[in-house]
Structure formats: structure tokens, C-alpha cells
DNA sequence: TTAACAGGTCAACGATGTTGTCATAAGGTG
DNA sequence: CACCTTATGACAACATCGTTGACCTGTTAA
């Protein structure tokens, strides 16, 4: 085993499946994405994917070494799609905010791929494009290189981390989600001020705020910290 | 089924396992934590946990409805342990920073529990303690209630999200991790400036920065944004 | 035309979470 | 002390999962 996978470029023989399908890395990734869109993230398994393609599950191992590799390819395709819908305006802060929200939404649709791509480096085309684009925005804003990289890193990781998190929440059966939201009403909002003064004082806001994603707020905090830092840097240069 | 689980308080009959162990929610959670500490997060499965306890796996379903419930209990225990090592000083920013780093480190040790507890509400004792404590710090700093909740929410979620992420990275076999780190050297650092100017310009910093966690940086950005906001609020009150 | 071999298929392995059923010992009651 | 109820542990089974080794066949290059 271990070297069953042939690099995409070297593939010659296009032998059709029993069901008549001609496999390819592209087709597999597309089908995987379709599967997830239609039936949720948990619907993606090697076996189901094989079934959806009309091929034996083990065939996929001729294209991907293991599931992780497949998920990384899916993630990269997703990055590409997100990037294509993004039109930077030249205002760094607005551009980053927009991209962050888009990538977060994209990750929402792809929890497992999002988790993977957040701590793995694919080195694939779309990932590289994204790195180049974001670094361009940050450097264009005026951050010196070491700080630009730090901000790039925090920005990307924050986006992917929240994406993975929020998508897990969305994937819950909605009865369970409702039950969770209710804990804030039924448990937290009922705590007596005597023992839990801070929770009691803010109960109303907790009930309203906690069931929603905090990503937009976290993103804005990150961006405004970056903006403040940029102002410092500019002041330092002038003075 | 569905109602095989008896609330901890109502338990009477302490019938020992074949192996002579007397089960309890407490013992199960402790054993789960030990299992993870000793053999990594992936070592935690119902079956392995049963084996470690000297009990049939299915017995655990008398104590937890499903694996998620067990993980939530583990997460809550972990929150408790973390909280106990934290001694707030009164300086809100330093205290939050310290707690953030501690909780992140705790989550690192418990990836699966961390993910779960980040998007679920347990309503268990330690979680409540943590909410009360953090809200106390934020409100004590002078944030008005709605904003205090927003900052609390972003702070906690970011901490757990990065914790889950970074722990996934740590859990990788170290050969794979080295390979990933090498992508920055072998792929990114080799991209020509002609096609990828920003990556080329910052390659040195990318290689150094990307394999590390960006959580401390992200945390500092969040805290400094919060500090700036607080300054604004104070100025507004005075003016 | 043929021979090599890429690539599809089959069957199997061991692992997972979960549940329906059964057996038994604990503990309240008389 | 004995009895009955029932809480709780054990067993066996199910469906699912990723993965691999061996096999077989159609494509393609010579």
C-alpha cells in the first residue's frame, strides 16, 4: 500500500467505474462538497462518498492517501470559492472584515474541513492565493513585516477557529440547540443575586447574547486593536 | 431506553462491577481524565473507558445518556481545575490574560471536551462559577452590562476555539507535524517574488511564526481593544 | 498485437457508539 | 431473617466507520 496514490498530473488511464463514472480528484472533491451541502457534514464518509460516486469506497484511496487528505482538498476548494466572491475595495479594515465574515460563513458549511485546514497547511493553490491576498491587504495597510505576519496569523486562525466552533453548534439537532439556549433562561437567569451577583445583574443580556455567534464581535475587536496599533506605528514614523 | 440514566443524587444501590469497582459519575469522569492524560485525547472511547474502569462499556450508559454528556462532564471538571489554579489580582487585564492562557492550556489537554463545551452550555457547577468569575472581572473593570457580556462572550469563545484548534495540532503524529511545518519552508518560502510578492517578502517571518499558536497574539489584540474601549467609555462618562 | 500496469473491485479486519435483553445483588420492608 | 422490587451491571448484537491486501481487467504505449 502506501504508494497507491498517483499525482494528479501523471494520471493517464481513465478507466471507468462499474457504474460508468470516470473518477478524478476534481470529481471526487465536487461530489464531496455536494454531499455535505445536501445532507450535512456528517454525511461525508468514504463509504457514502463512494456510493454517491458510483464507485467502490476503496477506489478513493487511489486518489487520496486517507480521509484527511480528502478533507484538505475539500477545504482548499472551499477557500478558492470564498476568495472568488470577495472584491477588496482598498480599505484594509473593511476588506479584512468582509473576508473574515465570508470565510467564517464558508467554514460554517464545512466544519470538518474547517477544523483540519485551520491547523494544517495544505500548500495547495487556493490556500496560497489566500495567504498572498491577505498578506497583501495587511502590508498594504502599512504594517511592518513581522507585525503583518502576526496579524495575518491571528486573523486567519481566529476566523477558522470560530468557523469550526459555530459550525459544530449549527450541526446540532435543533431540539438540542433549543434546549441549550434554554439553559441560559432556565438555569442562569434564575440564579439569585445573593450568590451570583454578576450573572444576576446581566442575565437579560446573557439570554440574548449567548445563543448567538460571538465571531463578529471578536473580529471587530481584533480589527480595532490592529487599527490602534497601526496608528501608533504611523505616529512613531512621523515623530 | 432513553431513561436509563438516574440522576446522581438518587443513586442508592452501589452494586460493584465484575471487577469489583463501584461506579459513580465522579469515578468515571476522573478515569476519563486520567485516560486522556496518559494516552492522548483519542484514547477516550466508551469501550476503552469501560475497560479502564473494569466495567462493561454499556454500564456507562447508566450514568451518561451518550458520549457527549460524558464529555461535557469532563469539560466541566476541567473548568473547575483550571479555575482553582487562578488567583485574580484585581488588575482586570492581567487577570483575563492569565485566565485566558490557563483555560487555553486546559483546553489543549482536552480537545474534544473543549470543542463541545465551547458551543454547548452545561449549566454545571464549575461552568457557572467560571461565568460568574469572568463577568465579575469584566464588570469590575467598568464595562457597562451589555458591553461586559459582549466582551465576556468573545473572550470565552475565542479561548475555547483556539484551544480546540491548537490541541488538534498537538495531537498530530509528530512526523506529520514536522511535515506540515516544512511546507512553509519548502513551498511558501520558495515562491518567487514575481508571482507572490507578499509571501516572498515575509517568508522568513512566516516560517518562524506559522508553526506556533497564534492564541497569545490574538488574546492580546482582544484585550487591548477592550482596554481602548474602556478608555473611551470613561472619557464619555467624565465629559 | 501484445504486455505492463494503473486503477477499479472485493472481502476482510478491527474499531467505534449504541441498545434490547437478561441476570443478579442490593436494600427496603415485614 | 426472608422476601420482593428494582436498580444496575453484563452480554450480545447492530450498523457504521476507515483502511488494506489481493485480485482482476481494461487502457495504453511500444
From TrEMBL, chains A, B:
DNA-binding region location: 45-64
Domain HTH tetR-type: start-end pairs: 22-82
Keyword Phosphoprotein on entry: no
Organism annotation: Streptomyces pseudovenezuelae
Top-level taxon of the source organism: Bacteria
SUPFAM superfamilies, sorted: Homeodomain-like (SSF46689), Tetracyclin repressor-like, C-terminal domain (SSF48498)
Keywords for the protein's UniProt record, in alphabetical order: DNA-binding, Transcription, Transcription regulation
InterPro entries: Homeodomain-like_sf, HTH-type_TetR-like_transc_reg, HTH_TetR, Repressor_TetR_C, Tet_transcr_reg_TetR-rel_C_sf
Name of the protein described by the UniProt record: AcrR family transcriptional regulator
